Every structure is written in structure tokens, then in C-alpha cells.
Amino acid sequence: MDIQDIESDITEVLLSEEQIAETISDLARRIEADYGDDDDLLIVGVLRGAVMVMADLARALRIHLTMDWMAVSSYGSGTQSSGVVRILKDLDTDITGRKVLIVEDIIDSGLTLSWLLANLRTRGAESVEICALLRKPEAVKVELDVKYVGVDIPNAFVVGYGLDYAEKYRNLKSIGVLAPHVYS
Ligand SMILES: O=P(O)(O)OC[C@H]1O[C@H](OP(=O)(O)OP(=O)(O)O)[C@H](O)[C@@H]1O
Ligand code: HPA
Ligand SMILES: [Mg+2]
């Protein structure tokens, strides 16, 4: 299978490579306006979906920061959240007194971030905020206090730029709606 075949599994491109870059840049400017060099900002990427957002957002931010990672999973290999969040890898950093910004690829049901936010807020950080590239307003099931959202998207299963279906498509440069023929 070559790249041409992968892209044919996308019915509609929601965000092109250029639109993703603009969105990340806008997020970075807003984050910079709220945090300065002295804030000792710790950005926490949520593996594995947020890898691309983390890599690009970190490079777009023109302030000092440190990076750490958590791995949680709630989706298994399907397209519906199980609602059961598992920690697969915890932080290596003690976040007591730190300013923490969780970086995510997508808020779908919101269950993953709701759980993660509650978990990190028990650890004595000065602040814990959320930055998500995408949000599906029609799919969100829980009230979630999200400080930075890139783009609101329709309630369709999307892939690319870190987002997967059964672990594939994370390497697409754009974000698009997965074609129904892929499910069957
Ligand atoms: O708002 P929710 O309905 O909770 O869905 C969002 C979460 O689901 C996906 O991760 P997943 O658990 O599939 O693991 P992955 O990041 O390794 O792809 C995505 O990367 C978010 O972390
Ligand atoms: O639309 C989605 N695509 C890929 N992974 C996801 N995890 C939650 N929602 C999605
Ligand atoms: Mg994820």
C-alpha cells in the first residue's frame, strides 16, 4: 500500500496541513500571552494521539518550557470510547507547584480529559489547563473546562495527524473523515 492508497481512505479533508499549522500557531500565540518564561510551564502530551500536536506546538511556543508524557487509553481498536480510562504510562515529573498544560489531539466524548484533569488536579499543581487541537461539540458528554481549543469539528470519526483508526492513519499530514468502506 502506498501513500495514494492511504489518502483514498479519506472522504473529506477537514484540516489541511496548512490549516493545521495556522491553528497550532494561533494556539501558541494565545498560550504565550498567558504564560511567560518565569512560569516554568510543563506541557504534558497524551500519548499516542497528541504526538504530532505536541511536536508542532512545542516548536511554535517561544517561551521556556519542559515536556512530559502520559499514556492513557480508552478507545481500544474501535471508534467508540469505552469510558474506562487506563494509565499506561504516568508522568516522570513531580508536578507539585507547577503550571501544567495538558496537550491533546481531540476532545470527543471528553471522558479521557475529564478523567485526566481530575487525576492531575489531585497532585498539587499550581494550575492544570487543557489545550486540544480538535473538539466535537456534538459528541461531548461531560462538562469540561478547556482553556485552549483549536477547531470545533463535526461529529464524524476523523484520522490523521496523530489520530488513528485501529492504530493506522496517524502519519497522514492532514486530518480527514474516514471513509465508510474502511470499517467494513
Ligand atoms: O474525548 P474522548 O472520547 O475521551 O476521546 C479522545 C481521546 O481518544 C483518543 O485517544 P485513545 O484513547 O484512542 O488513544 P491514542 O491517543 O493512543 O489514540 C484521542 O487521542 C483522545 O486522547
Ligand atoms: O474521531 C476520532 N478519531 C480518532 N481517534 C479518536 N478518538 C476519539 N475520537 C476520535
Ligand atoms: Mg489519545
TrEMBL record:
Q: Which InterPro entries match?
A: HGPRT, Hxn_phspho_trans, PRTase-like, PRTase_dom
Q: Which UniProt keywords apply?
A: Cytoplasm, Glycosyltransferase, Magnesium, Metal-binding, Nucleotide-binding, Purine salvage, Transferase
The enzyme's first-digit EC class, named in words, is transferase
Q: Does the keyword Thylakoid apply?
A: no
Give a Pfam family name: Pribosyltran
* Catalytic activity field: GMP + diphosphate = guanine + 5-phospho-alpha-D-ribose 1-diphosphate; IMP + diphosphate = hypoxanthine + 5-phospho-alpha-D-ribose 1-diphosphate
Q: What cofactor is needed?
A: Mg(2+)
A Gene Ontology cellular component where this protein is annotated is: cytosol
* NCBIfam families documented for this protein: HGPRTase (TIGR01203)
- The protein in question is named Hypoxanthine phosphoribosyltransferase
